[in-house]
Amino acid sequence: MADAELDFSALLDEIEYIEYEAEEIARRAYPLVEEYAKKVEKEWRANARKTAGRHGRHYPNSITSEQLYSTSGPEWEIGPDRAKKQGSMGRGFEYGSVKQPPHLDGARAVEKVGPEFNAAVDKLMKDFL
Predict the structure, then answer these.
(1) Is the Cα dihedral 25, 30, 31, 34 positive or negative?
(2) What is the pLDDT of residues 6-52, one digit of tens each?
(3) Long-range contacts made by residues 119-123, C-beta under 8 angstroms, separation at least 24?
(4) Cα→Cα distances 75→31, 63, 115, 128, Å
């Protein structure tokens, strides 16, 4: 019987490199997601200031962004904070009601910031290729 030698060291080196790159991508993704969450928050507030009217003058200040706990990656929640003044009115402002049409301030904010965010994510990924 002949001796056979299988050397997986190169493969193990590649796996180690990929694991390092994945950690580095995750490390860089956190501030990127935070930056764009803040941009959506700012845009949403600006939209709300234009559409809320006198009856919703406190509503724009209820719009916040905060990081959610996640083990799978950076995750942020953006929207009206129910604990803030008029924050509980967010669904009515965003989606409308019997008495008012939908304002879609958040949807328009995401639509405006989304392409820029997607381009930033693409750039981040291309930096590692």
Answers:
(1) positive
(2) 556 666 666 676 777 777 888 888 899 999 999 999 999 999 999 99
(3) 120/32, 120/35, 120/36, 121/29, 121/32
(4) 11, 17, 18, 21
Strands (E), the chain: 63-67, 76-80
Mean pLDDT of 86-111: 92
CA distances from 44 to 13, 32, 54 (A): 46, 18, 17
- Entry field: residues in the chain: 129
Query: pLDDT by residue (tens digit) across 88-98?
Result: 999 999 999 99
Q: The pTM is what?
A: 0.82
Contact 74, 30 (CB under 8 A): yes
Both structure tokens of 42: 């700012």
| Sequence-distant (≥ 6) Cβ neighbours of residue 103 within 8 angstroms | 47, 48, 51, 52, 93, 94, 96
CA distance 79 to 22: 30
